[in-house]
């Protein structure tokens, strides 16, 4: 559980601090308070700090404060606190307030009469309490999702004490960020690493906002580009809500792509370990099967449920190579052509014109490739049994691609 700017403003003893602009950033997480003693802050902050500007050591006219605001936005600090009084900064200029509103950066006014030692002590204590509470809540959720408990009743009682009533039914969402290789291919290693870390932080922040809009308001679990959400069911169509949330986000993330797998709905707390497994299976399909637009629900898997249940991967590989081995070897030697053709043929339900458009080739070229596929495999796409075998083998190939 993280402390937000809104939480800081609500702390006892800090009532004289007031938000003047940038209310859109009230949910920004506060990592630590930092008192700015230099002319600029870009070199001295890492992101997430609540920056206090006093004007004691450097003159803070509107030009300097606008520079600090710009640096605060670029370094993704949590917010700016301007200390005002008769000696140093007498007031906050309207231009600075307008700029903070436009940037969504919280701009808070603090009177010099409120001692900084009291402010930092209150924030520091709240951060420690929030961290301890957050760890406890994460521990409970992780144990439920892993099925790692001796008494479910005791664990649910602890969850309730931590402000997480988990009675009722739930749906699990598993998220993963792909495309890191493409990002590093386009950028220098240091730049790519910085950009990847920034995207991870941004996704985590957006997920927390998404979870905060949900009645349960449970914490987001996540690390290293993977996240887990618990969503109360029934509540609404989580799939459509996530699709609407994901589509514009992925446009901004390119070449990275965030994919989401959802479990079946209506899992009680005792079934969360099963729900997590379902969400992970759905996530594999969301990542490998582009027609799902990055979001897949376990109920949509169809025959893929059976394939996912086969624990001996060797059996699936054997079936794939028995049916499509000649095509795989052909594409390894001559470049990918026959397997993508077969995939397009199935995606367009055997419509040669649509498949040719999908692949951007002439229909005669596609017809020739289909004939080549049948000859190499010794199977016929007109035979329903052969078509079933080829379709299943193609699914195995796409799952392992």
Give a nutshell description of this structure.
This protein has 401 residues and is of the alpha/beta class. The chain is 53% helix and 14% strand.
- Estimated share of beta-strand residues: 5-15%
Shape: elongated
What is the assigned CATH homologous superfamily of the largest domain? Reverse transcriptase/Diguanylate cyclase domain
How many structural domains are formed by the residues?
3
Query: Which structural class is indicated by helix and strand composition?
Result: alpha/beta
- The portion of residues assigned to helices is 40-55%
Q: Give me the count of strands.
A: 11
* Count of helical stretches: 15
Could you name the CATH class of the largest domain?
A: Alpha Beta
> Could you name the CATH topology of the largest domain?
Alpha-Beta Plaits
**What does the radius of gyration come to?**
27 Å
Provide the CATH architecture of the largest domain.
2-Layer Sandwich
Helices and strands, with pairings:
Elements: H1 5-9, E1 18-21, E2 32-36, E3 49-53, H2 62-74, E4 79-84, H3 94-103, E5 107-111, H4 116-146, H5 152-161, E6 169-178, H6 180-186, H7 189-212, E7 221-223, E8 226-233, H8 238-253, E9 257-262, E10 267-268, H9 272-288, E11 295-297, H10 304-309, H11 313-334, H12 338-347, H13 352-359, H14 363-377, H15 384-400
Parallel strand pairs: 2-3, 3-4, 4-5, 9-11
Antiparallel strand pairs: 1-5, 6-8, 6-9, 6-10, 7-8
Helix pairs in contact: 2-3, 4-5, 6-7, 11-15, 12-13, 12-14, 13-14
